[in-house]
Amino acid sequence: MKKIGLREFLFLAPVIVLISIFSLVPVIQSFTYTFFDYRLNDQQNAGLYLNERFNYELFDETQLYLTMFLEEDKQQVTDPVLLGKIDTVIAKVEDKAKAFAGKEGVQKITKEEKTELIVLSKETQEVVQQLAEQYDTANEENLPLIAKDIENSIIPANFIGLKGYKQALGDARLGAALVNTTIFTFVSVAFELVLGLALAMIMNKAMRGKGLIRTTSLIPWAIPTAVAALMWSYLYDGSSGIVAHLFQMVGLVDNSRELLLSAGGAMVSTILADVWKTTPYMALLLLAGLQNISKDTYEAADIDGASSIQKFFTITIPLLKPSILVALLFRTLDAFRVFDLIYVLTGGGPGGATETLSIYGYKAMFAQTNFGYGSVIVMIMFVCVAVIATIYVKFLGANLMDKN
Fold first, then answer.
1. 267 and 343 in contact (C-beta within 8 Å)?
2. Any stretches that span the bilayer, and where are they (predicted)?
């Protein structure tokens, strides 16, 4: 094997850089998120923290409201002892705020600072509780919550290791999403293979208007997936959709309005839309393989008296096998990662009946802003895609080696 020299490496360098930026970096980043309880809707988990941190901005906001409310409520206090405690707490909080002046965001905190803050938080909560018990003040509902925010400003480490993967193993919703993804992938790809092969053989025939047939057959594939899904949503509409009423007429559904409202109807509808959309792509890949088969082979079979069926199974299928495997590889990986079609058409409903791994991951990451667990789902999907690709490539490589 020839070694790669400096010139060859420089030639490949732009490709390596692009792959690293757009493929490896996102994968590594997502993999990193899986080890953290990373949630943007929680102030204490809105970052990746291996060690304890302190939110200076939250403390500054807390002390501002705390001192303002205490100054307001102490006007009603007549007990000199309690007044002294309130003044002491206000002074300590303000002194601590001055000590933290100039610090922003989330930074490391020393053990001494943490201990002082916890003591200050406990002392403040005791004073606030005593104030609420003895006097009917205007801020008696807000002050206890604000006092606790002093301690809440201390952000614990949110490194959880493999707990996210352990949670995923017991997640029934994730299991259902994996089943839905598998059903959608293999059923849709199977139909696309059969229909795509038939369409490819039609387009490969020498006939008048062959160019027009090839052009028009690619129109569904050329339409953006989101647009196609929106179009099919109108066709499936129970009140005015022609496809929904057609299904009711032939007895596939009892009521056209229930087409997208039942688990089976929604899954069948998404598969049908995907088959319509991507069958031309499958046909295009198979057509390229058909055109590489020599016509002399078919002529020799005609001389031997082979029928069309015999030629199909003894010539077309064996010689087309590498193209079939390539087409299956591309379509299986694409279907397993399906998102936009289902997101626009059903949103994963009804009741999660069409929720795939990509839809579940999207909801976890962006609807719930739980990037930690959402990344776990994405990595599980990544592993599944890698396994599928490995299996296909292994068979494809073995087939090509046998062919050579």
1. no
2. 9-28, 183-203, 215-235, 312-330, 371-393
Tell me, yes or no, if the pTM score tops 0.85.
Answer: no
pLDDT digits (tens, 9 = 90+) for 67-108: 898 888 888 888 888 889 888 988 988 888 888 877 878 888
pLDDT score recorded for residue 164: 94
**Which tokens belong to 342?**
């289902």
Which helix H or strand E contains 106, and what residues bound it? strand 106-108
Vertex 313 angle, CA 311 and 316, to 5°: 65
Token pair of 278, please?
């991507």
Closest CA to 361 of 392, 384, 345, 337: 337
Rounded to 10 deg, the angle between the 142-152 and 111-134 helix axes is 170
Q: What DSSP assignment string belongs to 120-171?
A: HHHHHHHHHHHHHHH---TTTTHHHHHHHHHHHTEEPP-B-TTHHHHHHHT-
pLDDT tens sequence across 299-352? 888 888 888 888 888 888 888 888 888 899 889 999 999 999 999 999 998 889
Contact of 14 with 358, CB cutoff 8 Å: no
pLDDT tens-digit map of 184-213: 999 999 999 999 999 998 888 866 766 777
